[in-house]
Amino acid sequence: MRRLLLSVILIISLVGCGGGAPEGSPNTEGGDRVSSDGFFTDATTLYDAGGNAFVMRGVNHSHTWFKDKLDTALGAIAATGANTVRIVLSNGERWNKDEAADVRRVTEKCAELEMIAVLEVHDATGSNDAEDLMKAVDYWIEIKDVLIGNEAYVIVNVANEWYGDRNGEDWRDGYIEAITRLRGAGIKNTIIVDAAGWGQYPKSIHDFGREVFDSDKLRNTVFSIHMYEYAGKNEKTVKVNIDRALDIGVPVIIGEFGQRHTNGKVAFETILSYCEEKGVGYLGWSWKGNSGGVEYLDIALQWDGSALSEDWGEILVNSEYGLKATGKKCTVFE
């Protein structure tokens, strides 16, 4: 019966009956939360289309480089208890472009497995050039038919780690333009914005995130910190960075993290426990396929999840604050 209901939901969403959060209603200072056709924000909480608080618990999957692994990987990720999967896509600037039909297939598979899809363009990673960010925006506008009507199942992470430098002002200006263009094109999905400094400069969120948020006419933006050896280097740093980002009064997630990275260890167990304490979402990097000396970031040793890495995957999935223990399915699938 649940499969039948899900199929009906998907058919309805694909013909464009979704509408996103009503303009002006979400995230009002001290206001009541308002139900919507898609995800929406109110203060530091992300709500699903049914008006229920939703905390992301999931992983990243590098789809654009491993397109043939989609069904196997997503099935295995769903089995971990993940309620969300962040999907790496390409707009064709650096890698082979993911066309609209393929992206639709990805989102439909995620919904079939009862996981929320967070879609991100990876090509602008580390760039300080606003043109690269705008090319990511162009891509979302080009495939907007995949997004519009699916606001209850699909979230748009505009560009992975755009703005490599630790410069909040330029980061702010770029994202104000990006969000304005996305909303002007009729895209109402919740938007995720990565911090500056390759995602590891959360001061950009604390100092300028509110201006970015207020530029969104739907007031439906979430901010993401990537916690590796800088933003997540020890317990104190993890807690301060999460707290200061939340201080601006909008939802925050940890969009990427691992157990260590090139230049040091990561307090990943603190990330797990403190995110649970604070109601902050987290998405571990990444299911499988890492290379170039960071193979240790593989959560799974096999694409089908039959073996997990002991020092990362096992803890992320099976520990006290891991996916199986804390992941709660989005209520749109009930």
Describe this structure in words.
By secondary structure, the chain is α/β, with parallel strands linked by helices. It has a single domain, classed as Glycosidases (TIM Barrel, Alpha-Beta Barrel), CATH 3.20.20. Helices cover 34% and strands 16% of the residues. It has eleven helices and twelve strands. The chain has helices at residues 2-14, 70-79, 100-112, 130-142, 144-147, 168-184, 203-214, 235-246, 268-278, 313-318, 323-326; strands at residues 40-42, 45-47, 57-61, 84-89, 116-121, 154-157, 191-194, 221-227, 252-257, 260-261, 264-265, 281-284. The strands form three sheets. It has an eight-stranded parallel beta barrel, surrounded by six helices. The chain has a two-stranded antiparallel ribbon with strand order 1-2. α2 links the parallel β3 and β4. α4 packs parallel to α6 (168-184). The radius of gyration is 18 Å and the shape is globular. The termini are close together. The model is unreliable at 1-26 and 28-35 (pLDDT under 50).
List keywords for this structure.
single chain; alpha/beta; TIM Barrel; eight-stranded parallel beta barrel; disordered N terminus; 34% helix
Please describe the topology of this protein.
Blueprint: H1 2-14, E1 40-42, E2 45-47, E3 57-61, H2 70-79, E4 84-89, H3 100-112, E5 116-121, H4 130-142, H5 144-147, E6 154-157, H6 168-184, E7 191-194, H7 203-214, E8 221-227, H8 235-246, E9 252-257, E10 260-261, E11 264-265, H9 268-278, E12 281-284, H10 313-318, H11 323-326
Parallel strand pairs: 3-4, 3-12, 4-5, 5-6, 6-7, 7-8, 8-9, 9-12
Antiparallel strand pairs: 1-2, 10-11
Helix pairs in contact: 4-6, 6-7, 7-8, 8-9
